[in-house]
Design brief:
By secondary structure, this protein is α/β, with parallel strands linked by helices. Helices cover 16% and strands 27% of the residues. It contains 4 helices and 27 strands. The strands form 3 sheets. Strands 3-6-9-12-15-18-21-24-26-27 form a 10-stranded mixed sheet. Strands 1-4-7-10-13-16-19-22-25 form a 9-stranded parallel sheet, with no helix packed on it. Helix 2 runs antiparallel to helix 3 (223-232). The protein is elongated, with a radius of gyration of 20 Å.
Length: 256
């Protein structure tokens, strides 16, 4: 399953049933799990750990040194979960000592062509980054997030779970869970209701989130006052808690 023209450095650990195409270069400090498919002309540097069932298409660069000028060759890591797809020319960089020395990607994500995940980013599960979408250093992306084509997220921003970032949007502040954002800079444009329906959210749960969204975005009150009003609604659900916590935990401030 490994092409004779692939370059596998001594020390690399390759799992079972792994396909590696010609002219792919895998460094010595790379671990690749079972059932992965790696096309031709891929470069995987490290230290990098890749889980099971991942697909990496041609010309992707995985686990390379980051582009932060402060980086000086310190040992840092990239950890990738299971069943992710990295399309053509993806670039995924390792972390820096200025954070946790770690870039981490979860499971079941799709990174389309020319997407970029910078140093120290944390990407959850079931996310989609469409063509040319990029996230800068130290960005955190929650589960089930969609980033439209050519969208960009500023360094240190957090994008909450189930949110939707439109094509060409530029995110300069944190995006709460469930929110749709568009524009340059990105502004809120309602809830990702259709996405929540597709993922099995109950209608009354979506209604509760909509009421809370109105407190934050429609009533022209401070964030603190809006959070007090949401608490007064008396909904203890974990789904609503995800929305409020993504606001309370914001350090850059949320888009408004």
């Amino acid at each position: 399953m490994i092409h004779p023209q692939a370059i596998i450095e001594p020390g690399a650990i390759i799992g079972k049933n792994v396909t590696i195409g010609p002219w792919t270069h895998i460094a010595s400090n790379v671990i690749i799990g079972d059932n992965c498919h790696i096309s031709s002309h891929v470069v995987i540097n490290g230290p990098t750990k890749i889980g099971q069932g991942n697909r990496i298409f041609q010309f992707a660069s995985i686990g390379e040194d980051c582009q932060d000028l402060k980086y000086d060759g310190e040992p840092t890591e990239l950890v990738i979960g299971d069943n992710n797809i990295f399309r053509e020319c993806c670039t995924i960089h390792r972390g820096t000592p200025q954070d946790n020395s770690l870039t981490q990607i979860g499971n079941n994500n799709l990174f389309m062509a020319y997407t970029h995940v910078a140093h120290d980013c944390m990407v959850g599960n079931h996310c989609i980054m469409a063509n040319n979408a990029s996230i800068a250093g130290h960005v955190h992306i929650g589960d089930h997030v969609i980033l439209g084509g050519m969208s960009g997220v500023h360094q240190f921003c957090h994008v909450g779970a189930h949110s939707f970032i439109a094509a060409n949007a530029i995110v300069l502040k944190d995006v709460p869970a469930y929110v749709m954002a568009s524009g340059h800079p990105a502004k809120p444009f309602g809830l990702n209701s259709e996405g929540l329906k597709r993922r099995g959210f109950k209608s009354d749960t979506i209604l509760s989130i909509k009421r809370s969204y109105k407190e934050i975005y429609r009533k022209k009150q401070s964030v603190d006052d809006a959070l007090h009003a949401i608490a007064a609604l008396g909904d203890p659900s974990s789904e609503l808690e995800l929305f409020t916590q993504s606001i309370k935990n914001s350090t850059r401030g949320i888009i408004r």
